[in-house]
Design goal:
Layout (H helix, E strand, L loop, with lengths): L1 E3 L4 E12 L8 E13 L4 E13 L8 E15 L2 E12 L4 E2 L6 E2 L1 E11 L7
Antiparallel strand pairs: 1-2, 2-3, 3-4, 4-5, 5-6, 6-9, 7-8
């Protein structure tokens, strides 16, 4: 579900439930989750967005391990010229289990930060 609150503000929400059984008589593995998203166009060339997500992976259906995952993402878009976009992003994944590869070989951690930079150029016009 999304709502364009104004020409500059977009708000969205998502809820998920997945259930899977290997056989009809098997106990079900299930996943529940959700996400909230907001984006704001600060100026014609600068926009900021934030997203938070939650996933309860009971039985490890999606991730292979029973765990509760949280994700937070912050994105900054800059369009220095028409047809050119620079996007910076910071993301942090977190679990209640030691799941993510760490800085030391063979040691798993409960959180994983990621920093990304993307640039794009082309003739795309309008909404991305």
């Amino acid at each position: 579900m999304s709502w364009q609150a104004s020409t500059a503000l977009l708000v969205a929400a998502e809820a998920d439930y997945v259930e899977q059984r290997l056989y009809s008589y098997s106990s079900a593995d299930h996943v529940t989750g959700g996400a909230l998203y907001g984006a704001y166009q600060l100026t014609p060339r600068v926009a900021v967005a934030a997203r938070v997500e939650y996933l309860a992976d009971v039985g490890g259906l999606f991730s292979g391990a029973t765990q509760y995952l949280n994700v937070g993402t912050l994105t900054l878009d800059y369009r220095p010229a028409d047809g050119f976009l620079v996007r910076g992003e910071y993301r942090r994944d977190q679990s209640n289990q030691h799941y993510f590869l760490g800085h030391s070989l063979g040691v798993l951690e409960t959180a994983q930060p990621t920093i990304g930079l993307v640039w794009w150029f082309g003739q795309k016009a309008g909404a991305w």
